[in-house]
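anyone seen this seq b4? input:
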Amino acid sequence: MYSVHPSKIRAEPGNRIELQCNLKPSVKWYHKITLQNTDHPLYKFSGILSTESKLKIDSINKSHNGEYYCVSGNSYSLSKVYIYGE
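predicted toks r here
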């Protein structure tokens, strides 16, 4: 069972998305960013995007592509966001 809903999202640029995290008691949202798209990609995590249970992005674009992690204590769950078109 996923703690983040939806677990996958496909959306066009300019759309609004919402991710809901069911972990308790408090959460922090992070975005996993791909720095190098090769056979051995490098990643980094964004700073804290939100401390609310719901993460809202009003106007998505290609930079929002990737994995979003909801973290609470030693637990985490993720949602994969795919942006298509331009």
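The chain has one domain: 4-83. The mean pLDDT is 87. kinda curious what u guys think
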